[in-house]
Amino acid sequence: MQAKNSYTHPALKPLAVAIAFALTANSHAVRAADEASLSEITVTGVQIKQAGELDTRRINSGDTASLLDDTPGVSAYTNGGASSLPVIHGMNDDRIKVLVDGMSITSACANHMNPATSYISATNVAKTSVIAGLAPVSMGGDSIAGTISLASAPPAFAGNGETIHKEGSLAASFRSINSGSTLSASAAVASSSLSLGYAGSVDKASSYKDGNGNLVRDTLYETRNHQLTLGVKGDSSTFVVKAGQQSIPYQGFVNQYMDMVGNDANYLNLNYKGDFALGKLEARIYSQDTKHTMGFFTPEKPGAMPMNTHGQDLGYDLHAELTLSQQNTLRLGNEYHSFKLNDWWPPLAGSMMMGPNTYWNINNGKRDRFSLFAEMESKWNEQWMSLLGIRSDSVKSGTGKVQDYGCGMMCAGDAAAAAAFNAQNHARSDNNIDLTALTRYEVNLSSTYEFGYSRKTRSPNLYELYSWGTGAMAMAMIGWFGDANGYLGNPNLKPEVADTLSATAKWNDGAHKEWELAVTPYYTKVKDYIGVNKIGTSMMTGTSNLQFVNHDAKIYGLDISTKAAVWNNSYGLGQVKTVLGWTHGIRTDTGGSLYHIMPFNARVTLEQAVSSWTNAAELQLVGNKSNVDTLRNEAAASGYTLVNLRTAYQFKNVRLDLGVTNLFNKFYSMPLGGTDIAGWKAGGSVGLPGPVAGAGRSINAGLTVKF
């Protein structure tokens, strides 16, 4: 069976609407929404970090998602050395809106080995922003947990007095725990109206060792990223083109049956921003083509089985903002995102079970989302502000016919499942409505109270809908949870609908210099939460076979962040920062805990800045993980405490970073690390696999030279 290429993106009608919208927006002189204005009213706040704040964390890991480690409410599933899956308030991956330079990128892998965060190098991230929970409709859509935005540097232009502006940097870092090394370079040349820039990096690491000195198998990887940026600047507008290429020749996945043996992606991103008499307009069109291959490449987890995927993202955004009056700002938007996917498993020569035919897991899968939103921000007086928004997302999904390996009686179950799947109508359409209502009351310079409600909706992804194989091996290849279980899709899944209430109280000394305290409780009720039911036990491994089904769930918790000055004298400026988080998630219809809920956790950091030095000592605390998902055989984990140190010295254009993570070489099991499939297989696959151990002590160093 060959992949069908007759499907054409239904972009003509949306594009016509988009063009009309753009012309209307231009004629009314409207303005695109930006994160800075949204941060003033968002209930949970936009947690924004700029390049300088990120520098001290880049040397610790090659995983871009690790840059968010100290953000309130954010954690991550372990999923490869450069591909962990972000989590906001207990909800992960596709439940989060992740934007990379404004692009919506879909994971093209049955194990989600290539999430959106993996497509930008940590060295190339100039700004991160996180909205945990009540995301405005202008920054949400097809997500229920929140929004993460990762942005590379904007184009540089010559300033006043410069004819030609030139800049560049070279950086290198090293991590002892896995012999990890990162090399990166950037360069730009620009006039006052035209800019051309390049950024590239190579990151490579071996498998790391835990606190007991034992090898944590199959955690090695290599990534290569390149990006070109072209900027054109007018009197009141900018046009930016970013084009890039990623190559990952290999990446081990300790908690998956398969590894990545190739991931090649090419993208193009065109962005326009224009200022007009009454506002601004922003337009973006982008595409990404990804070819991904799973297999085996290392004796640390041997095997033989090829799996291929080809994913294509195509989309545009039109965001506009109209200043109606001094008090009222109206935002309007139109978005379109299309994802096409082919997922096939070539036959394995000489195998009695994997051949003679190609196994088609998803053949000509498609998922199209067309969106409209309207949002009004109002400043009623010096104390009260509000934000009201409504959003409509139309999501259409479908796929073609599939086939099994064709290996006779040994594939009888999959053959019957393929026939049953092909007899069904796979086309489906969801019409989703999102609402957000937020308000802020600023009592005085020292205290502010924010609260609000949101209704957010997410339609199921292609793998949740259309993974059809019922054989033990076929099911084991599906799933991005790192739990060693097998998964079966469900074409009858309903969209998840999350109703969230959240509030934030913020206090400070009045000048934000001596101390700050923010407390955010939240409560989310999810109707038709996409969970699982157990449908059997694998005869091959003894693990569970699960099917995606709709449940009802609730998630609630508390985020606390503080900052307090300790000294300001000849020893420089010293301050203590604290971030604490607690989340609890349960199924309300059948009972039981939700999977991979982060236990109580806290980071307490003492920072010092004196002259050209910045120093920090960090205490990381994680409580016992006792609330576990028994449906997925999730293991409990003991709590732990880690100590991390870092220092940096800036001398003119040279920066030196040094750090130690897990100073006392503590052994611990990661609460969101999943199961150690690589170690389990090496031990003969006896019983069920145990949890993945965290990394032991690592001495990290980095050197950056700017010119």
Rg from Cα: 25 Å
The whole-number mean of residue pLDDT values reads 92
Between the first and last Cα atoms, what is the distance in angstroms? 55 Å
What is the CATH level 1 assignment? Mainly Beta
- Percentage beta strand: over 45%
- Count of discrete domains: 1
Describe the model.
- This protein is mostly beta strands and 707 residues long.
- It has helices at 12-27, 35-39, 51-58, 412-422, 462-466, 472-476, 677-682; strands at residues 46-50, 74-77, 85-88, 91-92, 96-100, 103-104, 127-132, 146-151, 165-175, 180-190, 194-205, 221-233, 237-251, 259-275, 279-295, 307-323, 328-345, 359-379, 384-398, 428-444, 447-458, 486-488, 496-508, 515-537, 544-569, 572-587, 601-610, 613-622, 640-651, 654-661, 698-706.
- The strands form 3 sheets. It has a 22-stranded antiparallel beta barrel. Strands 1-7-8-5-6 form a 5-stranded mixed β-sheet.
- The termini are far apart.
Which features characterize this protein?
single chain, Maltoporin, Chain A, globular
Task: Give a quick summary of the entry.
This protein is mainly beta.
Spell out the blueprint of helices and strands.
Elements: H1 12-27, H2 35-39, E1 46-50, H3 51-58, E2 74-77, E3 85-88, E4 91-92, E5 96-100, E6 103-104, E7 127-132, E8 146-151, E9 165-175, E10 180-190, E11 194-205, E12 221-233, E13 237-251, E14 259-275, E15 279-295, E16 307-323, E17 328-345, E18 359-379, E19 384-398, H4 412-422, E20 428-444, E21 447-458, H5 462-466, H6 472-476, E22 486-488, E23 496-508, E24 515-537, E25 544-569, E26 572-587, E27 601-610, E28 613-622, E29 640-651, E30 654-661, H7 677-682, E31 698-706
Parallel strand pairs: 5-8, 22-25
Antiparallel strand pairs: 1-7, 2-3, 3-4, 5-6, 7-8, 9-10, 9-31, 10-11, 11-12, 12-13, 13-14, 14-15, 15-16, 16-17, 17-18, 18-19, 19-20, 20-21, 21-23, 23-24, 24-25, 25-26, 26-27, 27-28, 28-29, 29-30, 30-31
